[in-house]
């Protein structure tokens, strides 16, 4: 039996191979397969995940220069495209060099070689597949609470009753470690492992480390002739914490900090700041009071202000709670997957100077038989609107705050944390109204009695009850500030000034200068605390490195943030102790504006955990434009999964079915060039036929809706439903503003210290973004445009 027809299924299973629940996932994905096919699939997956010993040497097989790439003890020689293929394949197998990695690199090399032979005069560039783009994780602000150092120290490991075995550390943190030991170690996973650090220089000699530290064995993985132990430190002890911290701080001169987590977070936050100002959907925050859901807050940005304004009546009172009644919210929250609860239709009627709102859900209209009457009559009104609602239950086990750097405080202030904890759900309103199809909705009307619609008149709301919170598009404040005055001197090049602090936090401060000074900003400065030095003892508070973030009040007020490098920052350490020892004496600056920004930031973080659409980003190069990436939420979404079917790598998406044949250039790129950053997102619509072929492969047939007549649209939908499945997407597009680098300045400063080239790459990547948009599923609404596709219940 051949597995040729199961290649797509194998590609879907590859990224899941190393997951702990792979067996359950495998059973789910292969539920429709025969036992023999499932056996062969598992054999193939085991084959490609097996360790590989083959060396890849392309020095005599490519026209491009090769460089040495070392994986474990193996030395490979790869050209640039093959090295990129290797780096893309390794994460699928948890950075293990497996047969699947080897085959992927060789396959990519042969494909490039074949393309070059077929087009010898044409240089092969990345643009060969211009619509295969990576995914960027949005809304996942995971934090490692401590720094992890990638470096090797000789160790000995032992268990009670066993001899010591020599090995080496792979990385070390205060709470854990990864170590490499011989594969024949005879250690028992259920017993503690005592690890001694050997061969430390005298300056890093600590008696506790020489005696040994006890660890729990979390995981063991065999690689070549070694066993890789993942360890968690047993017991607690402040003294030992300090000893290991000192060791890590001392070794920072010699080894690199693992900054991958910070880079992933900073990338997500940077692209998020491009998207959020133009996000067109309205997030509403639900709290349960006396057993009933109530809308208490709304999160506003520039892109959704107009949507919020739609619900204002003649007295400027929001009638939104009248549309989202208790019954509708309960249905939506308890049955979030029932599509009929997600669509709400609305129009207004003005009489005697008063605005009356009428609304109904698709579920309600089907139940009482007035679907055709409401759609047909309402769609004739200029105020006609169609809304899609999404519901998201908030997981309070996760932190609310984006604490992305090791050592960051993982919580906001107490009041903000309390407010965020009171939210149970987020409901997002997406406006699906398309005035171009109103005539299709009007075909529902059959001269029925419009007086029957009075039952859908909303109860009048007499006072505003929803608190509007605006998203802050400025720097994040991560720490409480305290009022504190002391003398400071500040230098930048040959410029020197003095001033008084207005407020302090452990990592930052605000200074008012005696005289205005034209300092360069943002840039580094050197500051000293002459009066505090007398109280600081041996701690040196002179010539401390800080970043000047911004100036205001004619360059008299400066905002500074500590530049934390390899050494402990004396200013940060001293101010932290000063604040912690004088909490009762220092005045905490918890102004409402600061609390409001904290709340807005937390609400934004909650919303981004489960975004209602799939954002994408357009970037400009020197002579070309392309889609640079799509945004992926923390949960699997149907749209991105659809475009992951025809790609080689995990977190890679093929947008060709929807963007090729000039669609990207004519429908997105050219309109964006003519837009301004203040323009709201525009859109066009796409119909998709999804056809499943032999054993997992999927074919997408995409058509721009406006290119089809109404009759052709109906035929296309019917054919899609007959052959497989029909789906409709709204494709938004707009011009991006410049990146909000201030928002990720702390992450960038951290990355610059430990991997400066990666910080520059991220900055360049964000500055290249000139446009953005999103894909939104509108399938449910599109089907309602055609009365012949919907079964209508006669009114009782």
UniProtKB/TrEMBL annotation:
Q: Where are the transmembrane segments?
A: none
Which SUPFAM superfamilies does this chain map to?
Answer: PilZ domain-like
What Pfam families does this protein's entry cite?
Answer: PilZ
Q: Where is the PilZ domain?
A: 143-247, 475-588
Superkingdom of origin organism: Bacteria
Protein name as catalogued: PilZ domain-containing protein
């Amino acid at each position: 039996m051949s597995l040729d027809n199961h290649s797509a299924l194998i590609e879907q299973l590859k990224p899941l191979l190393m997951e702990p629940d792979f067996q359950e996932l495998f059973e789910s994905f292969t539920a429709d397969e025969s036992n023999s096919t499932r056996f062969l699939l598992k054999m193939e997956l085991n084959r490609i995940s097996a360790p590989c010993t083959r060396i890849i040497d392309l020095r005599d097989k490519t026209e491009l220069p090769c460089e040495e790439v070392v994986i474990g003890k193996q030395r490979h020689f790869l050209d640039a495209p093959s090295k990129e293929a290797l780096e893309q394949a390794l994460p699928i197998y948890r950075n293990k060099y497996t047969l699947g990695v080897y085959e992927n690199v060789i396959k990519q090399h042969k494909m490039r070689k074949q393309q070059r032979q077929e087009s010898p005069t044409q240089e092969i560039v990345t643009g060969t597949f211009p619509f295969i783009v990576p995914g960027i994780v949005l809304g996942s602000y995971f934090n490692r609470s401590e720094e992890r150092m990638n470096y090797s120290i000789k160790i000995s490991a032992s268990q009670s009753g066993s001899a010591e075995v020599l090995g080496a550390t792979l990385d070390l943190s205060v709470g854990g470690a990864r170590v490499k030991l011989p594969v024949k170690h005879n250690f028992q996973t259920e017993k503690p492992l005592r690890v001694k650090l050997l061969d430390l220089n005298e300056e890093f000699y600590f008696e506790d480390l020489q005696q040994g530290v006890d660890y729990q064995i979390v995981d063991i993985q065999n690689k070549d002739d070694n066993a890789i132990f993942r360890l968690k430190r047993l017991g607690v002890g402040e003294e030992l914490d300090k000893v290991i911290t000192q060791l890590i701080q001392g070794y920072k001169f010699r080894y690199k900090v693992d900054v991958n987590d910070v880079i992933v977070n900073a990338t997500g936050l940077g692209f998020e700041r491009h998207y959020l100002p133009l996000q067109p959907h309205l997030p509403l925050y639900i709290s349960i009071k006396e057993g009933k859901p109530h809308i208490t807050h709304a999160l506003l940005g520039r892109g959704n202000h107009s949507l919020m304004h739609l619900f204002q009546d003649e007295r400027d009172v929001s009638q939104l709670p009248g549309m989202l009644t208790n019954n509708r919210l309960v249905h939506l929250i308890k049955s979030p997957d029932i599509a009929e609860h997600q669509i709400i239709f609305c129009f207004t009627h003005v009489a005697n100077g008063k605005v009356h709102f009428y609304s109904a859900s698709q579920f309600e209209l089907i139940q009482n038989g007035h679907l055709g009457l409401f759609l047909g009559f309402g769609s004739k009104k200029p105020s006609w609107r169609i809304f899609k609602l999404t519901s998201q239950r908030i997981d309070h086990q996760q932190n609310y705050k984006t604490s992305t750097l090791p050592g960051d405080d993982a919580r906001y202030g107490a009041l903000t944390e309390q407010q965020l904890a009171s939210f149970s759900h987020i409901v997002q309103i997406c406006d699906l109204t398309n005035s171009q199809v109103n005539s299709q909705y009007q075909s529902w009307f059959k001269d029925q009695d419009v007086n029957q619609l009075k039952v859908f008149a909303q109860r009048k709301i007499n006072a505003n009850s929803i608190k509007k919170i605006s998203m802050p598009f400025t720097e994040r404040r991560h720490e409480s500030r305290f009022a504190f005055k002391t003398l400071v001197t500040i230098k930048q090049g040959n410029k020197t000034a003095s001033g008084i602090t207005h407020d302090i936090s452990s990592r930052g401060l605000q200074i008012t200068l005696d005289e205005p000074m034209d300092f360069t900003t943002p840039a580094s400065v050197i500051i000293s605390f002459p009066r505090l030095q007398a109280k600081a003892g041996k701690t040196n508070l002179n010539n401390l490195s800080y970043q000047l973030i911004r100036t205001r009040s004619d360059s008299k007020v400066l905002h500074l943030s500590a530049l934390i490098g390899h050494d402990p920052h004396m200013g940060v350490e001293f101010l932290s102790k000063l604040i912690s020892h004088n909490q009762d004496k220092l005045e905490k600056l918890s102004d409402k504006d600061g609390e409001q920004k904290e709340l807005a930031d937390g609400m934004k973080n909650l919303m981004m955990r489960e975004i209602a659409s799939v954002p994408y980003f357009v970037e400009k190069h020197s002579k070309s434009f392309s889609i640079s990436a799509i945004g992926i939420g923390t949960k699997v979404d149907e749209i991105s999964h659809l475009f992951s079917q025809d790609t080689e790598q995990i977190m890679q998406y093929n947008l060709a079915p929807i963007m090729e044949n000039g669609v990207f250039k004519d429908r997105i790129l050219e309109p964006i060039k003519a837009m301004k950053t203040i323009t709201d997102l525009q859109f066009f619509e796409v119909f998709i036929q999804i056809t499943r072929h032999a054993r997992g492969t999927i074919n997408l047939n995409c058509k721009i809706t406006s290119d089809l007549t109404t009759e052709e649209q109906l035929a296309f939908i019917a054919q899609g439903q007959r052959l497989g499945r029909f789906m409709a997407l709204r494709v938004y597009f707009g011009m991006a503003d410049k990146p909000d680098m201030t928002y990720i300045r702390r992450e960038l400063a951290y990355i610059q210290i430990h991997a400066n080239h990666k910080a520059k790459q991220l900055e360049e990547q964000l500055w290249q973004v000139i446009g953005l948009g999103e894909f939104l599923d509108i399938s449910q609404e599109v089907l309602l445009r055609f009365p012949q596709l919907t079964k209508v219940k006669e009114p009782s």
